[in-house]
Amino acid sequence: MKYRLFSAALAGLVLTQLYQNCSQLGGFEALDSASTSASLGSVDMSHPAEKTVTLPTQRLQMVNKTYVATLLREVFYSTSTPVPNLEAIINQWVFFKGGQYGQGCDPYSSYSGYDCGGSIMNANLPYQMEDNTVRQSFNVQACENILGMDQAVAAVLQKVTNPSTAPTAAAVAQVYEMFYRGDDASPEVVASLIDMDRALAANAETPTNRWRAVILQVCESPGWQLQ
Questions:
Q1: How far apart are alpha carbons 78 and 150 in whole angstroms?
Q2: pTM of the entire structure?
Q3: What is the dihedral of CA 32, 23, 132, 10, to 10 degrees?
Q4: Of 30, 35, 149, 181, whose CB has the highest number of CB atoms within 10 Å?
Q5: What mean pLDDT comes out for the span 19-23?
Q6: For 60-79, what is each residue's pLDDT tens digit?
Q7: Beta pairing, strands 61-62 & 129-130
């Protein structure tokens, strides 16, 4: 596929605002042993054997398969430049992967034969799933298979206000916001994508491939699927 031509240039680039690490809790300062002994006098300082304490951790909740599939359809749908097999690609890597994306099917609906794939086991899936590496690999496959076709690049650019032949900061921000609904693209994220585009331009990549790289980076980033 065409995006393979510039895959090396994309390695190592990470969008800057996908996840935020929680601040570490400050540790307790040790008391001076001499002053402690003096203040406590003859109090027995022996302690029972310490037990390992497991603190609760917060797991990232992700949107389910319907949200992801619907967004991909909206972003890449076009009547003038339809993406070949778009629906089949979305079904293969998203909609039929409820075990990774979350949301079971309804075996009693008229849609069940398509959604459940003939198995009622899929009806008992959780409505949402935590992030997992298998899910991310499926998302990458969906984005790469869709954006491997020039029609997908054209479909996205049709939704950009005042589109340009080559990526600009304003146009890149609009692409970002197609995926990150309700979020404005930060200057840092836009700058990182523009820097990548400049590197591709320096390697004489075509405008279509440069746009493909920008859209692919945003599509493959997991942050837009956070609940």
A1: 12
A2: 0.69
A3: -120
A4: 149
A5: 37
A6: 678 888 889 999 999 999 99
A7: antiparallel
Domain boundaries of the chain, sorted by first residue: 58-225
**CB neighbourhood size of 9 (10 A):** 18
In this prediction, residue 82 has a pLDDT band, given cuts at 50, 70 and 90, of very high
Say if residues 166 and 220 touch (Cβ distance below 8 Å).
no
Cα dihedral 81, 84, 88, 90 in deg (nearest 10) = -50
Residue 131 DSSP SS3 = coil
Reported residue count of the chain is 227
Q: What is the pLDDT of residue 96?
A: 79
Residue carrying the six token digits 């040790």 = 30
Whether the Cβ atoms of residue 112 and residue 105 lie closer than 8 Å to each other: yes
Q: Report which residue type is found at 89.
A: I
- Measured N-to-C along each axis, helices 150-157 and 133-147 cross at an angle, to the nearest 10 degrees, of 90
Structure tokens at 41: 């006098």
Tell me the two tokens of residue 29. Answer: 């300062």
